[in-house]
Specification:
The complex is a heterodimer of chains A (about 300) and B (about 280). By secondary structure, chain A is mainly alpha-helical. Helix content of chain A is about 75%, strand content about 0%. Chain A contains 13 helices and two strands. The radius of gyration of chain A is 23 Å and the shape is globular. The chains are: A mainly alpha (about 300), B mainly alpha (about 280).
């Protein structure tokens, strides 16, 4: 008996250690990015790194410069652009699924959303080159269509499934009595949707869009392939842009290990990590509050 | 009968437009890839090596590479993910630590894939000194899929009725015995189907393998898990942006894209069918 109790304790202990794996990986990623970034910030001043738009790590005749401001601006520009496209379409689709669609239509649309979510990002990026790019070039008379607009359109397609399914969940969890009360007071179905149901589901919808935003900011392959990767301060959506993720993807393979340039790329990774972490935390808090309110 | 309000008509018109746009987007994507990739695909394309600077020939090494990497991903992610899920669902109490673990899982699923790539370069390539190889890339992807595996496994564990556990415990079984005999047999099929969905996503990922082992072109098949490899998603990236004759190899790029999405969908479909059949067996 004593033996089996010991064994039980061992097994419990092993599972406990295993349970910590997610914490260990998350802390490990953060610690690693911080240590490598510290090596970078021995050579680069933090304010210059964040707020100078001059990135030229391989300069030979002048001192190399490491400013990522234009990349930060580009990243947010492409992601916010994506959100502007994906939010109305995503919420519209979610509202259609929860309010209008018959069971049969829902059975058709839901798998479509899932298939869309399953398409690898590199395939979406490829379509940005062969499909969206030429259309943009023709419509706006630019030399090639590889620019911020292209990236936004592609990221919108990738963010749609997240936004649709989470917004639909939020709309569905609005108590039926809200809707009935509104209709009984003489509001039309549309007024009920816009003035009662969507406001009631708003925190869920906001959390959904923040998650979509976080994904868009961290997405690499699509923006790498479709935005043209020109290092400059973007002036309009028709400019080619270089995002933070693209810079890491392009340059990490080419720099020698353990140089300032190498560490600077990890510092970009740290900035990305912090931005997405904060966005996820905020959406988490909003969702948590929202669950309490509904209860 | 009230007359339909003008704002109602416009509003619901917009909702229809939204759904329509989503459907049309998917149709355009699939139609373009299938119609232009179909012509390239034949047995020879699937089972031969690339030739003449990758302007001719097939994509066999990329298929093999993606397969091997996904196996490594599964070997790392499935046991670790299942173990974590078993701890959370069977052993853990509702306390601060439990909440910390759950918060970590949610945040891990939001970490950008390229950041996993950075982590893999340091941990596997440099610190563990494995070099850029199948093993490093597979383990990097394994860490990336971990949050999905945990979530899917926990979902499966939650579906096992509480009475199954209580029955075993009442008969004098220890906690682990009750989990092993009365919980896992019913949960494992669900765990696996959920995990396959995560693996299909890993198979299509490019950013984490960019620096951990994927190679531009290798004229032979990987000899061991310590060799560099070609992978379908990376091959598509190369063929559409980095190749010296991009317009000439466009058909090969389309073919690669078609094989890649076919692979991802086949894995998804496999998971769905498996889930359906398991459900049926359970009912009987």
């Amino acid at each position: 008996m004593g033996h089996s109790r010991f064994k039980e304790k061992m097994i419990h202990g092993l599972f406990f250690l295993n349970g910590l794996v997610a914490v260990i990986v998350l802390v490990g990623i953060f610690a690693l990015l911080v240590t490598k970034s510290i090596s970078a910030f021995r050579e680069i001043s933090l304010s210059q790194f964040l707020f100078s738009a001059n990135w030229n790590p391989t300069a030979t005749f002048v001192a190399p410069s490491y400013g990522i401001w234009s990349m930060i601006v580009s990243t947010f520009m492409v992601s916010l652009g994506a959100l502007c496209i994906a939010l109305p379409l995503g919420i519209g689709t979610a509202a259609y699924l929860s309010d209008v669609a018959s069971a049969r239509v829902r059975e058709i649309v839901k798998p479509i959303v899932e298939i869309l979510a399953g398409i690898p990002s590199v395939v979406i990026g490829f379509l940005g080159i062969v499909l969206v790019g030429p259309v943009i070039a023709k419509v706006f008379h630019t030399t090639n269509g590889l620019n911020a607009l292209n990236g936004s359109i592609l990221l919108a397609v990738m963010a749609l499934p997240t936004i649709i399914s989470l917004s639909e969940d939020a709309l569905k969890s609005v108590p039926k009595s809200f809707e009935e009360a509104s209709l009984a007071l003489g509001a039309t179905k549309w007024q009920t949707l816009v003035r009662v149901k969507i406001p009631a589901a708003l925190s869920g919808i906001i959390a959904a869009s923040m998650l979509g935003m976080g994904r868009a900011i961290g997405e690499t392959m699509t923006v790498l392939m479709a935005t043209g990767c020109a290092l400059e301060m973007p002036k309009s959506f028709l400019d080619s842009v270089l995002t933070m993720t693209s810079t890491i993807a392009i340059e990490l393979g080419e720099v020698p290990y353990n140089t300032t340039h190498y560490y600077a790329l990890f510092a970009i990774g740290l900035v990305l990590f912090i931005i997405t972490f904060v966005i996820n935390m905020i959406s988490d808090i909003i969702l948590h509050r929202y669950e309490k309110v509904i209860k | 009968m009230k007359k339909p309000h003008i704002s109602d008509m416009l509003g619901f018109g917009f909702l229809r437009f939204s759904v329509g746009t989503v459907i049309v987007a998917l149709i355009i994507i699939l139609f373009d890839i299938i119609s232009k990739g179909r012509g390239v695909i034949c047995w020879k394309f699937l089972i031969t090596m690339p030739k003449n600077g990758m302007t001719e020939g097939g994509i066999l090494p990329a298929i093999i590479g993606t397969f091997l990497v996904t196996v490594i991903t599964a070997l790392l992610s499935i046991p670790l993910g299942m173990g974590c899920a078993i701890y959370l669902n069977e052993y853990a109490r509702e306390n601060m630590l439990n909440r910390l673990i759950r918060m970590s899982i949610r945040n891990l699923s939001g970490v950008p894939s390229i950041v996993y790539g950075l982590f893999g370069v340091i941990l596997f390539v440099q610190v563990m000194n494995l070099g850029t190889c199948i093993l490093s890339a597979g383990m990097t992807l394994g860490l990336m899929t971990l949050p999905w595996t945990i979530t899917a496994s926990e979902e499966a564990l939650k579906n096992v009725p509480k009475s199954y556990r209580e029955g075993a415990l009442a008969l004098g079984a220890t906690k682990w015995q009750s989990i092993r005999t009365n919980v896992l047999p019913y949960a494992i099929p669900g765990m696996l189907t959920g995990t396959i969905l995560g693996l299909s996503r890993a198979a299509g990922e490019t950013a984490p393998i960019l620096f951990t082992g994927a190679a531009f072109f290798i004229p032979f098949l990987p000899k061991s898990l310590f060799s560099q490899f070609m992978a379908l998603p990376y091959h598509l990236y190369i063929m559409s942006t980095q190749h010296h004759a991009i317009s000439k190899v466009r058909p090969i790029a389309y073919g690669t894209a078609l094989v890649l999405i076919a692979l991802v969908f086949a894995m998804n479909l496999g998971a769905v069918i498996a889930r359906y059949r398991l459900r049926k067996i359970k009912m009987e």
